[in-house]
Design brief:
Mean pLDDT of chain A: 87
Number of helices of chain A: 6
Radius of gyration of chain A: 31 Å
Distance between the termini of chain B: 83 Å
Strand content of chain B: 35-45%
CATH class of the largest domain in chain A: Mainly Beta
Number of strands of chain A: 23
Low-confidence stretches of chain B: 18-22, 152-163
Largest interface: A-B, 73 and 61 residues
Largest sheet of chain B: 6 strands, mixed
Helix content of chain A: 10-25%
Shape of chain A: extended
Radius of gyration of chain B: 23 Å
Number of helices of chain B: 4
Number of strands of chain B: 27
Strand order of the largest sheet of chain A: 9-16-15-11-12
Mean pLDDT of chain B: 82
Distance between the termini of chain A: 103 Å
Structural class of chain B: mainly beta
CATH architecture of the largest domain in chain A: Sandwich
Number of domains of chain A: 3
Oligomer: heterodimer
Structural class of chain A: alpha+beta
CATH topology of the largest domain in chain A: Immunoglobulin-like
Low-confidence stretches of chain A: 15-32
Chain lengths: 369, 370
């Protein structure tokens, strides 16, 4: 009895495995046999290659009328172009095909096949490379925060994925300015966030009613959520946090007269090192400083903010020649509180204080010996 | 025989000369046919004869594209598509969460609605809506021209442009009297720019800084970014009517907006802080005109134009109560969560609205709201 039962049980298991295998093979067949392939570019599924023999009867100029690609289970034909490419029919959708979704390919009412766009490798995730300013004590009238990512991120998401926490647990609402479109650099890896300027400016209505966004002497955290997707749909995977404590407000413009410059050696590739005495704006530092030679020519090289943005290093492409140089500073350069070389961010314009005439540039001289 | 050779030689030389000097044929707006490399679509607005201006913040460029959609239509039923986001997602073969509607613009000639959509990977798509039909607008081999938005550059800025981190985002765009107007914001310094660009494009673009008196703030400030604007005429004088975050409504005389000028605006209404204006249009019913304005946290506002014209004051004292309003009177319409707004004709508006049942609908309003 037990032997018969065992045999019967084994048969059932075999039958189950067999059926599954058949099912598995037939699933594979629907795309494999049809030979439809995905065209990839930059990890994005930018097209489908459909073997020409699947639609031999269709003339090249009527492919767009006769053929269609649809989201599986959907009756809407997708927008895109069919054309002949090599021995295939190439379908190019208006936007890349979405990972994790299935698509069906049709010739009139005949289904030619189905394609699944594979999910991204779960380990292939973007990361937060930096949150600026770097310093862990920041003025209470801090104006800007920069988030630097390793890959282009999806836009328009910051209100959902960035929060400022007070005392490690209270999320502060309405602290960051909700700007649409957001302020991204061209490759979408650096995002500028503004703390609400109306609340920073003293005595303005939002400031009076809602108070300044940050108060002196309080521990805060900037938290970037792990759920923020990049342009390919991969999420950060790990959240990023920057903790800082606020110090009293900074109401003074950066003053180049207080800066110091090292003297690079003639014939060397030594970096020019400018010490500011206070941290300055991360993004502006990389492009508002220029080195000019005696003939007025700009020296090629790259600026790099170091030491928590309190120093700037300029690495020249060519070695230094003897002579006098000029460090040309654009006046739009700001400190962490948005004070630039010409004016403090928050000034009482009803007070008639003597402000110097604004200049586009401020120059500092140095010598290479 | 010699003569024949000479003529032949001359002919060949002439042909060669022609071949080397042939340039792409330009149309009346100085456009040439080709494929514009548009990286993003932040704003849309129509110019003359079906010319569509596309504001591309990513490449800091304004493109002018001839849509060839210029057959005049006097009366149109407008557009009407329920759950438009789901329909667009199906047409693009993706899920609703992966798309964002960036802007809509009505072609004033054909009355067709153009809609800019952005995919989550940043790919821009331009769609045309005729009634309840959606179709793609091809930007391949079209007559177009373009103008790069320039910044005040440093001496070596030219060498660095390729790697510059500085980007001018485009918050709104408009066209009037042969000029494309673009409002924008920099990702580096907190400054707002307003550009007025003659069309057909030349090399000139006037950049002005605008100063407003922000009643809710109580002081002059130069730096607030314009969120949306339109142009208008009051007592024979042309004005820029702009609205900012925290919603003051400000008039700037257009003839004063010149290169490098610094223009002080007159705040005519304070529509409450904690809100951001989204779109505005000017409508007309009989002899009366109205300004209609869509908002992020308020319903659509309607301002009687007569009141705007008659309001000669300028708000100089802060609005005392928070979230309160001042200046020219306005009416809140029973239209909430309107995300996009454009004018179909004098009495009809095309609206993109998130309904209370969660559905995102594109529809056309009638005179009832005027």
């Amino acid at each position: 009895m037990s032997g018969t039962y065992k045999r019967c049980w084994c048969f059932l298991i075999r039958l189950y495995i067999g059926c599954n295998l058949i099912f598995f093979v037939s699933c594979q067949q629907s795309t494999e046999d049809a030979g439809i392939r995905i065209r990839w570019a930059d990890k994005r599924a930018t097209g489908l290659r459909i073997p020409r023999q699947l639609a031999l009867a269709v003339a090249a100029d009527s492919l767009n009328q006769r053929m269609a690609v649809r989201l599986a289970g959907n009756e809407t034909s997708m927008l895109g172009q069919f054309q002949l490419a090599d021995n295939d029919i190439l379908f190019e959708p208006l936007i890349p095909l979405t990972r994790g979704l299935h698509y069906t390919i049709w010739l009139g009412n005949k289904r030619l096949g189905e394609v699944a766009i594979p999910n991204l490798n779960p380990d292939d995730k973007p990361t937060v490379l930096g949150i600026y300013p770097t310093q862990d004590s920041l003025p209470e009238n801090l104006l800007k925060i920069y988030l630097h990512f390793s890959r282009p991120m999806r836009e328009g998401q910051s209100p959902k994925y960035v929060a400022i926490l007070k005392n490690k647990n209270d999320t502060l609402p309405g602290v960051l300015l909700d700007l649409q479109p957001e302020l991204w650099n061209a490759d979408r890896t650096l995002l500028t966030l503004w703390l609400d300027p109306g609340r920073i400016k003293r005595d303005l209505q939002p400031n009076k009613r809602l108070g300044a966004p940050l108060q002196t002497g309080v521990p805060y955290q900037i938290v970037v959520s792990a759920n923020w997707p990049d342009t390919q749909g991969a999420t950060l995977g790990r959240s990023a946090t920057k903790s800082f404590v606020t110090v009293p407000r900074d109401s003074l413009s950066p003053d180049p007269e207080q800066w110091s410059i090292n003297q690079p050696k003639q014939g060397s590739l030594d970096p020019l090192e400018v010490t500011f005495g206070e941290p300055l704006d991360y993004s502006l530092l990389t492009e508002t400083l220029h080195v000019i030679d005696e003939e007025g020519r700009a020296i090629a090289g790259k600026w790099q903010p170091v030491d928590e943005e309190k120093r700037g290093l300029f690495k020249p492409v060519m070695s230094w020649n003897t002579g006098q140089y000029r460090l040309k500073i654009e006046s739009r350069l700001e400190d962490l509180a948005g004070n630039n070389l010409n004016r403090p961010f928050d000034r009482d314009i009803t007070r008639k204080n003597k402000s110097p005439t604004p200049h586009l540039f401020v120059d500092m001289l140095f010598r290479v010996k | 025989m010699k003569k024949t050779y000479a003529i032949l030689a001359l002919g060949v030389a002439g042909l060669l000369f022609l071949a080397t000097t042939t340039r792409p044929i330009q149309n009346q707006y100085g456009m040439v046919t080709g494929t514009p490399s548009i990286k993003s679509i932040n704003a849309l607005t129509f110019g003359p004869d079906g010319v569509l201006f596309i504001g591309d913040g990513k490449s800091a460029t304004v493109f002018a594209v001839d849509t060839k959609d210029a057959a005049p239509v006097d009366k149109s039923a407008g557009a009407d598509i329920k759950n438009i986001d789901q329909k667009i997602a199906a047409l693009l073969g993706t899920e609703v969460a992966n798309i964002t509607i960036q802007d809509i613009a009505v072609n004033p000639v054909s009355k067709n609605v153009y809609c800019a959509v952005q995919h989550s990977d940043g790919t821009p798509v331009l769609l045309k809506i005729e009634g309840d039909k959606l179709s793609a607008v091809s930007l391949k081999d079209v007559p177009f021209s373009m103008l790069a938005l320039t910044n005040v550059a440093a001496e070596d800025a030219k060498d660095r442009r390729g790697e510059s981190l500085r980007v001018a985002s485009i918050s709104d765009m408009g066209y009037a009297d042969g000029k494309v107007m673009v409002s924008g914001l920099s990702n580096q310094e907190f400054g707002s720019t307003f550009r007025s660009i003659p069309f057909p494009f030349t090399n000139t673009q006037n950049q002005a800084s605008l100063e407003i008196y922000h009643a809710a703030h109580g002081k002059y400030e130069t730096m607030a970014p314009i969120k949306t604007f339109t142009t208008t005429e009051i007592k024979g004088k042309k004005y820029l009517l702009a609205s900012y975050t925290c919603t003051p409504l400000v008039l700037f005389p257009l003839d004063e907006l010149k290169a490098g000028s610094h223009v002080k605006g007159r705040t005519v209404a304070e529509m409450g802080s904690g809100n951001s204006p989204l779109d505005m249009v000017i409508m007309k019913k009989g002899d009366e005109s109205f300004l209609m304005m869509a908002n992020s946290s308020r319903p659509v506002f309607k301002v009687k134009y007569k009141n705007l014209e008659e309001y000669q004051g300028s708000l100089t004292t802060p609005v005392v109560e928070n979230f309160a309003t001042a200046g020219v009177d306005f009416v809140s319409l029973p239209l909430t969560n309107v995300i996009q707004l454009d004018k179909l004709d004098d009495t009809h508006m095309v609206l993109l609205q998130r309904r209370s049942n969660g559905s995102l609908d594109l529809w056309t309003s009638n005179e009832r709201y005027l």
